[in-house]
Amino acid sequence: MSKLATDTGILLETGTNELEILEFYINETIKEGHPPVKNHFGINVAKVMQVIETPNLEPPESAPHPSFMGTIPLRDLILPVLDLSVWLELNMPKTERDIVIVTEFSKSVTGFLVSGVTEIHRVGWGEVIPPSSVISQSTDSIIGLVDKGDHFIQLLDLETILTQFEPDDGIALKRSDREYKVLVADDSATIRTMLQQNLTSANFKPTITNNGSEALKTIMGYKAMAEEAGKDITEYVDIVVSDIEMPLMDGFSLTKNIKQDPVLKKLPVILYSSIITNELRHKGDSVGADMQITKPDLHTIPEVAIKLIEGTHA
Where is the CheW-like domain (predicted)? Predict the structure, then answer.
């Protein structure tokens, strides 16, 4: 059993638009009698607790999902193990050398069965290629690709996978008395849809972007229009809500650009991630984020946004 430090951080320095990823692979049998093909994937090192040997589980007949293999004890926890190849529709041959990557994020600990791990890479979000530009039929669980020359590393959005196991809580959302304009940045279509629905229900008018780079371009466009019309920036946008981990530009760098701009700095910024550790919270504070929220608490964003906007306007 090997342990991976979770305090290496998404960013090596605040606002440098960098992260560390653990590269792993899933073998796929394309044709019987031929050697399996390696599919390379990556996840944020900060989400990884441990890498352990396969527990050789047999999926129970009453499994809630075909990928569910059962549970295992780890320290004082009982955690579910999911066969990642089932989610990704890969015909993975099971061997005694398979491993389980134990992750901790979104207030849950989960094991993911894969064929093996390779190494840890430091990459810049600017190097992460949006999947739509490379993969014609991309799944929402692939948020980007990193070109390593002889192969691509596909970055996985494990939160999208886990949402299939989480029931809809049906939480009542606070509604604003007046319509506010919000700019949202997130690379996950699932999260974008959820935020758009929640914010619209709370009387917000959302503008949805796919990453920090697109969001910054959009808000700079608002700034130019405001200056040309002699209006305040809040005539075009009242608040920015952004994921932290995104291709091209992460949420920290987006926030840093906004807060360093003399016109845009008055706008409140809410950052969210599946992992808000003390270290990451400090980094969010250092770039000027007004609030930081974990993804399991995304339903609180409309209420938090209303308080921040009305506090700023007051």
Answer: 18-167
User: In this structure, what token pair is assigned to residue 113?
Assistant: 């069965």
For residue 34, the one-letter residue type is: H
User: What tokens were used for 312?
Assistant: 């700023």
Bridge-based pairing state of the strands 99-105 and 108-114:
antiparallel
- Gap between the Cα atoms of 36 and 26, Å rounded: 9
List, in order of start, the domains of the chain with CATH numbers.
2-164 (2.40.50.180), 167-313 (3.40.50.2300)
Q: Give the C-alpha separation, 81 to 100, whole Å.
A: 8
- Residue 127 DSSP label: G
Q: What percent of the chain stands above pLDDT 90?
A: 55
List of residues 6+ apart from 306 with CB closer than 8 A: 174, 176, 180, 202
Tokens for 88?
Answer: 């990704």
Place of tokens 């653990």: 22
Lowest mean pLDDT among 45-59, 168-182, 296-310: 168-182
* Token pair in block for residue 296: 């399991």
| DSSP structure class, residue 196 | H
Gap between the Cα atoms of 77 and 82, Å rounded:
16
Q: Kindly give the interhelix angle for 251-259 and 212-229, rounded to the nearest 10 degrees.
A: 20
pLDDT in tens, 191-246: 898 899 999 999 999 999 999 999 999 999 999 999 999 999 999 999 999 999 88
19 forms beta bridges with 123
Q: Where are the alpha helices (DSSP H) in the chain?
A: 84-87, 158-162, 189-201, 212-229, 251-259, 278-286, 301-313
The helix or strand, by DSSP H or E, that contains position 83, with its residue range, turns out to be: strand 77-83
The residues facing 131 across adjacent strands are: none
57 pLDDT more than 80: yes
Q: What is the Cα–Cα distance from 45 to 37, expressed in whole angstroms?
A: 24
CB 104 within 8 A of CB 87: no
Please state, in angstroms and as integers, the Cα–Cα distance from residue 36 to each residue in 55, 64, 97, 167, following that order: 22, 29, 14, 36
